[in-house]
Give the backbone structure.
Amino acid sequence: MKPVAFGYARAETVEEAIDLLAEEGREASVIAGGLSLGAMLNMRLVRPRIVLDINRVPGLDTIVAANGVVTTGALVRQVDAFRDPTIASHVPLLAHALPHVGHYQTRSRGTLGGSVAHADPSAEIPLALVTLGGAVVLRAKGRTRRVPAADFFLGVLTTAREENELLVALEWPTRRPRTVYAFDEIAQRHGDFAIAAVAVAAEVVPDGTLGHLALGLGGIEDRPIRIETAGYAGRRADASLAEAIAEDAASRVVPIVDLQANADYRRQLVRVLGRRVLAAAFEDAVRGA
Amino acid sequence: MIRVKPDERVRVSLVVNGRWLFGHAEPRMLLSDFLRHELKLFGTHVGCEHGVCGACTVEIDGRATRSCLRYAVQCDGATIRTVEGLAVGDTLTPLQAAFNRHHALQCGFCTAGILMSTTAFLAENPKPTEAEVRDMLSGHICRCTGYEQIVSAIMDVAHGGG
């Protein structure tokens, strides 16, 4: 379909963009890669009065590692993040997640920031950010604030971003010692929206027991979630622990229901995929410990 | 800041297949429609218009991308390659020739997009594995061939022999 008519504004600086957002508020939609917004415009699911294009704002496409955090500008394209040596070495979970994001022809243009701002519950990039305990940097006129990823995603396509704020960067905590990162998902076809996605950061200490564990789930609830796993620290990191944690996670989720899957099926995927990803991560970590 | 009203038609100039061309677009005009209706380049096909089918894929500034998810007004000054930019006269590119030899198309609706994706893909990765080729092709929908001949054609042109 064709979109409803909209006005177009092309910002040359972040200041111009946030000035326009201050004026237009919810009447404006920010376009970065346009892989999600373009589809929604064309299907007339959104009808903004003005589309604010930030693609020519300089300085929003940088990847910088400092003080234990990798900061990615809002316009970093998914393919560039995937090929970036800083991401590969410092944020391996994101590198593992990116091949599952859309397709070769969409990763070329789609951005990290756009995926987070769009907040599809099955999206991989938000899931990686939540699992790692990252943050979203938002700028409005006269102020900048950082929102922890856990507080940013509020529901389906709904975030804590206020209408006058521009998402300018994401902050990714860098890899922890002795920690293995793993990501996998189940979708109807590779590159489709995940019915269930599992992201893991697992630390195994030298005696073979579990240290810190972060377990994130995507596509299951109305936003990416992290499962509470602190109680498992100190137990032997093996296949039976993987099974116990996955079983526990499956019993705690409140799955969404859509045309792709009902709640029971999603819960079963948490059980099966969770066990598989955790067990593989534990095995890798024990080998490295 | 450049601002365009919803019903305002602005001039868009870009390099298409090595030539500067221009046309006019209101903000909501898709690049795919601009290529076809303003520039009369009908080789780029339009399928789903929401980024799923891959038929409209073209190269924009060196990258294979959906032209239905780009608005023409965003593309002022861009460099674009469409399927019309592949063959020189009657001389097909090696990829097009391989598609011909392997019967890698039937109705041809998806072909322009697949050729543009694959041209960009092989420039970055000239010796892909079959798994890599299939992963790249997952961004296209072909309802005729079952993909086998498309994979064969791409593997042939990448790895030679036929």
